[in-house]
Every structure is written in structure tokens, then in C-alpha cells.
């Protein structure tokens, strides 16, 4: 038997079919996963639709459920929700954070303090010092610098 000083497998033509087979299997698995996920989404949507129908059926068929005019107005209003306690709340989309305020009560506000007034004055001074006439920040300055200066000025006041 002949003994070679190199590995003969290094010089054999490579069989890329194994790599291709793995790639095809991964693609098939991904397609199957996507199909299952789509099916789950469809099932979820069907269940949600059935839940809505059941809720409407309960309201229509149950004689014990009565509605006053405020409830009837709130049903089709997308900005009004009801808490588990039965209280109507208004959900107003306001930028990044949506605020929920009660329909029947006024929102509570925080009392203004001496520090708030001082901070307001300090921010005005800091903005005057670190901004140009056209309103842009000076070169190399950021809002962080403005806030740091305002805080420093507030402590001095």
C-alpha cells in the first residue's frame, strides 16, 4: 500500500451539493416557519373577530344590560375606553406618549414650586448665552451644555 505525505482529500474535487442541500433545507425551514406564523396570525384575527361578535351578541340578547346615552356615544368613539370598574376614560393620542384622562374628572396638575420658576429663568439665560441670534446652538455646544449651565445658574440664584 502506498503512503502519501499529503492528504489526498485536499486535491479531490469538492462536492458543493452538500452545502447547497443545507442551504435549501434552511430556506425550506424558513418558508415553513413563515407559513406557520401567517397561519397563527390568521387564527388570532379569526379569534378576535369571534370575540367581538360574542360581545355584541351578549349586549343585544341580554335583557339585563341597559345603556344610557353616554355609553351609546362612547361605543363608536375610538378615543374613549372603559376601565374594568366601568368608568369611561378618554385616550388622546399626544405625540410620543398617549395620555389617558378621565372623562368625568379634570386631570391633576402639579403645584409649581420656587425651583421650577428659577429653572425656567436659568434656562432662558443659558439659551441666550449658548445660542446665536438665529436660534442655532453655538459650534460645539449641545442641549446637554445648555441644561448643565442652566442647572449651575439655578443653584447660584
Notes on the protein architecture:
By secondary structure, the chain is mainly alpha-helical. It has four helices and three strands, in the order H-H-E-E-E-H-H. It has helices at residues 17-61, 69-75, 114-130, 143-156; strands spanning 80-82, 88-92, 99-102. Helix 3 crosses helix 4. The protein is flat and about 95 Å long. The mean pLDDT is 79.
In a few lines, what is going on in this structure?
With 157 residues, the protein is mostly helical.
Fold blueprint:
Elements: H1 17-61, H2 69-75, E1 80-82, E2 88-92, E3 99-102, H3 114-130, H4 143-156
Antiparallel strand pairs: 1-2, 2-3
Q: Roughly what is the average pLDDT, rounded to an integer?
A: 79
Largest sheet: 3 strands, antiparallel
Task: Name the overall outline.
Answer: flat
* Helical residues, percent: 40-55%
> What's the N-to-C terminus distance?
97 Å
Percentage of residues in DSSP E strands:
5-15%
Global structural class: mainly alpha
Amino acid at each position: 500500500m502506498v503512503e502519501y505525505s499529503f492528504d489526498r482529500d485536499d486535491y479531490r474535487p469538492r462536492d458543493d451539493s452538500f452545502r447547497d442541500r443545507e442551504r435549501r433545507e434552511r430556506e425550506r425551514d424558513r418558508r415553513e416557519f413563515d407559513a406557520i406564523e401567517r397561519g397563527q396570525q390568521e387564527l388570532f384575527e379569526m379569534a378576535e373577530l369571534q370575540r367581538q361578535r360574542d360581545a355584541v351578541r351578549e349586549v343585544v340578547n341580554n335583557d339585563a344590560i341597559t345603556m344610557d346615552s353616554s355609553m351609546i356615544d362612547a361605543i363608536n368613539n375610538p378615543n374613549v375606553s372603559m376601565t374594568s370598574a366601568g368608568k369611561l376614560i378618554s385616550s388622546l393620542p399626544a405625540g410620543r406618549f398617549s395620555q389617558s384622562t378621565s372623562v368625568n374628572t379634570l386631570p391633576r396638575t402639579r403645584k409649581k414650586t420656587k425651583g421650577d420658576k428659577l429653572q425656567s429663568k436659568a434656562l432662558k439665560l443659558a439659551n441666550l448665552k449658548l445660542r446665536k441670534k438665529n436660534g442655532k446652538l453655538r459650534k460645539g455646544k449641545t442641549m446637554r451644555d445648555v441644561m448643565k449651565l442652566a442647572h449651575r445658574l439655578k443653584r447660584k440664584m
